[in-house]
Design brief:
By secondary structure, this protein is α+β, with helices and mostly antiparallel strands. It contains 24 helices and 18 strands. Helix 3 packs across helix 16.
Length: 596
């Protein structure tokens, strides 16, 4: 092959390489938008054959988050962090199945406490709430017998339209509204609120206008309906205005700290006996509550009679806080063990109740009987097979998974870590230039022939005249060089005479010195900035904070790398950036509606 051919081949290869590399770079730097998200189906994370994540899937997830709530670009590094957190969380969930919760006392105890509470709630749901039915006659009878239980405060049934200035900066005309000053935007929003009020010709049209124009995400889908409200639920002027209106009234627009409001009062109930035609649901709920309370109390009385405790006599006379938390204190009905930890939280209550320094054996037995009242409900729940209900089984599995996963996630943190003194000092010494200042002052000056002229220029500068403009007029030498000569920039010791430097040190930042004499004449000096060296004693606290933050990152990254290796996980190093619209516009339905 001759030299010419070799050169041509090299050029061809180089061109191909540039195209390939350029294509790769372009692909990495491509931005994922809503309209092109489906094009990015490349895999960005994988764990063996059971977990995979594509860029388009990640984009769909981002639509439900608050990342960049005002819209914008998630850079590649941020996207990588999001992917890592998703994959690590998934792997922690997988690793949770390997954890034996019973080997971890604190987490196991919390799990059992929450499981007991779940069973107690499930028992009362099955044995009490589901057993109570209320008919209409019972409601009338209860109201006649105990009318005081059916009294209500002043109520209004409300609708409102809410107009938020910031919303306009995210809407279709956002460029226009973002170009306005705060005063201009406020005026346009005010005019818009009054225009909306003019659209409401009759009360029936309020819900139509609210459904179209209100910015309240909670009430807008229901035509602005808030529902029944009593005094004090909302802050003024909303509250006082609503209760000054009569049914059918529609307020004029008014402004509060959140935005503009228009209120419509559809109905009103004065304080007194609740009208059943409008508050039947509340009256029925009152009767249901009374009946469940009666039935629940009867069941609890029956269960308390079933309590049979076998006490651990060895711990009853001992100081509660000297006992091992895990020590058994009593066994209930030969089935459930109550530990010292279960009654320890009652110690101060009983000391206060009996005014003693430490509870006696009889007091501890009383404490155990109090705790046993909850344990006996759990036993009843098991007796009635509440724990075998699908919902209870699912809840138990969810609770166990929660605490097991929490134990795995603990490996991501090292909360007690503190850098030792040698680490802090090493950091300070390695970055000593960040804490020392070679040129601590930024100065400007004007040289004048006599002290009187210097005093005059100082007065002029202190009255508000620009110092460099004064220099341009009074500094000696070529006029086009005067500003440059007057602006000294940053200076340090030894760069100016001792008299000059000392005068600058004594002058407060932002002020002009009295005339100071050197061999060149008199100087007036303006101090623009002064930076001081930071001694180790002062820098130490911030360095410790920095090292702790670094350690947090290091521990998290080490945990991530370890769990990735354990499960043979792969995650892309340079994902595509993601562009997100403002949060209110992210729902897919809105995109589809716009595209249609």
């Amino acid at each position: 092959m001759n030299v010419r051919n070799a050169t041509n081949l090299f050029c061809c290869v180089l061109v191909v390489a540039i195209i390939v590399i350029g294509g790769c770079v372009a692909n990495r730097s491509a931005v994922v938008y809503q309209h092109n998200a489906a094009e990015f189906d490349q895999e960005i994370a994988r764990v063996d054959d059971w977990y995979s994540l594509s860029m388009s899937e990640l984009y769909q997830m981002m639509l439900t988050t608050n990342f960049l709530s005002r819209g914008g670009l998630l850079e590649s590094q941020v996207v990588k962090g999001i992917i890592d957190s998703l994959v690590v969380d998934t792997l922690c969930g997988l690793k949770a199945s390997q954890v034996r919760l019973e080997d971890h006392y604190s987490e196991s105890r919390l799990y059992k406490l929450r499981l007991r509470n779940t069973l107690i709630k499930g028992f009362f749901e099955e044995a009490v709430y589901r057993q109570v039915t209320v008919d209409s006659q019972e409601v009338y009878d209860a109201m006649e017998k105990s009318p005081e239980l059916f009294m209500v405060d002043d109520y209004v049934f409300l609708y409102h339209i809410f107009i938020v200035p910031e919303h306009f900066k995210r809407g279709p005309d956002s460029l226009h509204y973002r170009s306005l000053t705060d005063e201009q935007l406020e005026q346009e929003v005010r005019d818009w609120a009054y225009k909306i009020r003019e659209m409401i010709v009759v009360p029936d049209s309020f819900t139509v206008v609210a459904g179209e124009y209100s910015h309240d995400a909670d009430t807008q889908p229901n035509g602005g309906m808030i529902g029944w409200a009593t005094r004090g639920e909302y802050y003024d002027p909303f509250d006082s205005l609503a209760f000054s209106m009569q049914p059918g009234d529609i307020s004029e627009p008014y402004r509060d700290k959140d935005g503009w409001h228009i209120i419509y009062v559809e109905d009103r109930v004065p304080a007194g006996l609740m009208p059943l035609d409008r508050f039947w649901w509340a009256a029925e709920a009152n009767v249901r509550t009374m009946q469940t309370n009666v039935l629940g109390a009867a069941i609890m009385d029956s269960l308390k009679n079933e309590i049979n405790l076998d006490f651990n006599e060895n711990i009853l006379d001992k100081h509660m806080y000297y006992l091992d938390r895990k020590e058994w204190a009593a066994v209930l009905n030969g089935l459930d063990t109550i530990s010292v930890n279960d009654i320890r939280g009652l110690e101060e209550k009983y000391r206060g109740k009996y005014k003693v320094e430490s509870t006696t054996a009889e007091m501890k037995k009383e404490m155990l009987r109090e705790v046993a009242e909850r344990f006996i409900i759990v036993q009843a729940a098991r007796k009635y097979k509440v724990d075998t209900l699908p919902s209870m089984i699912a809840e138990e599995q969810s609770l166990r998974y929660h605490y097991c996963k929490g134990l795995v996630i603990k490996g991501m943190f090292d909360p007690g870590w503190e850098p030792d003194e040698s680490m802090v000092k090493f950091y300070f010494d390695q970055r000593i230039e960040d804490y020392t200042v070679e040129k601590p002052m930024t100065l400007q000056h004007i040289i004048v022939p006599d002290k009187a002229t210097g005093e005059f220029l100082r007065d002029q500068a202190n009255s508000g005249l620009d110092f460099l403009e004064l220099a341009e007029e009074y500094y000696p030498g070529e006029k086009h060089l005067r500003r440059q000569l007057a602006d000294l920039g940053q200076i340090g010791p030894g760069e100016m005479s001792e008299e000059f430097y000392h005068a600058a040190l004594m002058t407060p930042v932002g002020e002009v010195s009295a005339p100071v004499k050197t061999k060149y004449g008199y100087h007036v000096i303006k101090v623009l900035e002064r930076r001081e060296a930071v001694p180790y004693s002062e820098a130490r606290r911030s360095i410790i904070g920095h090292l702790k933050r670094e350690h947090v990152v290091e521990v998290k990254e080490a945990f991530r790398d370890s769990i990735y290796a354990e499960f043979d996980a792969w995650v892309v190093e340079e994902p595509n950036p993601i562009h997100l619209r403002p949060y209110p516009d992210r729902e897919l339905k809105k995109y589809r509606d716009k595209e249609e």
